[in-house]
Structures
1.
Amino acid sequence: MEKQYNLIIGGTGQFGITLGNLLKKNKKKVIITSRTNSRNSKIKNIKITKLNIYNKKEIFSCLKKFKPARIFYFAGQSSPSLSFKKKNETMRSNYIGCKNILDVIYSFDKSIKFLHAASSEMYGKVSGKISLKTPKHPVNPYGEAKLKAFNITKFYREKFNLKTYNAVIFNTESLLRRKEFLIPKICLAAIKAKKKEIKTEFGNLNISREWNWCEDQCELLIKFLNKAPQDFILSNGKPYSAKQMLKFAFGYFNLNYKKYVYENNTKFLRPRDILKKKSYFNESLKKNNIKKKKFVYGKKLIFLIIKYYLKKEYYKNKNYYSL
């Protein structure tokens, strides 16, 4: 049987769904795995299969059944703040699961391309721009787990010549992003202020990030998979502070965010938070002769999310008023 499937492990989050839909649009065959076989309403026309990432026999059976050409690993507990409370789960899901997949690929078919979704959280507090050569000193259990998974993915490439890739992903948003994350919360805060003059509490608003659009990231990710196995950075090089993003969101309704926002609430402060994060995003693009595209970021990103929420009327759900 000719290998043609794209297997997305842990594919029910924003990256898995976005990538799956993009691959389907390009006429590729896609299988999404999940801890359960329950269907996500956001996943359209893509087969979902149950997979236990801690069971190598189950992994082997999955690969034998679908004979994938490419495997994408997006599984794992993905919240840096929550990782302090769920250290074991964070390490097991991000590292042990990743290693198990690599072990099975090594014994089953070394020609399979494997991509691990790494994270900029691996680097910790960095004063300048982050490049692939920047020393890695994670400050939270999530970053530690991602670093171990990054290293084992690279080890299998260098030691056993497996076709493995590490995508170092910076903050990414989409219409599928869970509402408790900062950017969706900012957009909902603006809507709540406009609709009911409700004030919203936040943690540290002085942080600065390169907020990326998930569809942009997935398009670039596929281009890198057509290059030689390697580590690469996925970002846009456009940092904005949380306060700047608030200005965009409240500006959509001609409102001053300072009238509707409380900051530095200890409930929302992240332990060992990183104030600024910037990337040498162009480094990997130039090396692989991949042309830059027009990224979605800043005001455009905020407006896309707000328009979507208004259309879907998420703000009418009382649970969102408590965020």
2.
Amino acid sequence: MTSIDQDSIDHKGRHENKGFKSLVSKTSVQFISISDEESGQRVDNFLLRTLNGVPKTRIYKAIRKGEVRVNKGRVKPENKLTAGDLIRVPPLDVVESNAPKSIPDRWFKRIAKSVVYEDQNLIVLNKPTGLAVHGGSGVNFGLIESLRQIYPNQRYLELVHRLDRDTSGLIMVAKRASTLRELHQLLRGDGVDKRYLALVHGKWPAHRVRVEASLEKSGLASGERVVRVSADGRRSITDFRVVERLNGATLIEAKPVTGRTHQIRVHAQHAGHPIMSDPKYASEDQLNEAKSIGLKRLFLHAYRLSFRLDGSLYEFEAPMDAELQQVCESIALRNSFS
């Protein structure tokens, strides 16, 4: 396991930004040698990830016109890069407004401390609640943008999977394109075992060990995204297990068999037991009940992750944070006086 080099952090607690963006020039051609970590990427994906601030349409135009070349030859967007390839990048204008946002100190420190495992292929973090996995839709920065500033010399960093902004817990980030492909292949099957802890309203029935209900995404007039059970949606399955019964609530373990947006949250609601403090899928009365016990965040935490990669077994656990543990203890204490 390796760790963040604290000597490369400036006096404000941030790494210097030494990313490729500084190489983009309006007046000269640049040549980039593809590293082992970057091998296997499509030409367009490599350029989109690397050329921060260059409009997407301009990148595709440069490929189409032959301005972008690999080993002196013309390429198509879908062509794959291999280690040692030399890619020619023409002079390209950078839209400065798209430059990476600086990470607030409080988030920088939390993210840096959230790394639970790291090797040459992979980073596993215990993501804090309230942090989006990537920027966009009114979010200036997310986990992946933050990591790219924390690791300025790491030329490849990509999310392997996602967690909702309000969900805490274990998440993987690949440091090599080949690692990303291998883990995606595992995720498409049953090669990655992900377990979550959730506190739901009411008494979850012991016999309800699986919810199978197709899910469909939809958007509200405000632009907010919601998910609902629909016969026209995608097949979705979640397995559930009762961990502890509390007064008016149940701590459950959820294992998503499929990986749909908001799957655990919507399946819990569909079963009649929404997750506590869920602003999208709990009722107003249920939200008030959660506030009454001191819960200020969605009670959903990705606490266990295991998989086999290159013949090795990887297993990680991240306990619930102090706030979630305190909520359970408060309910248990309330039980003893009721």
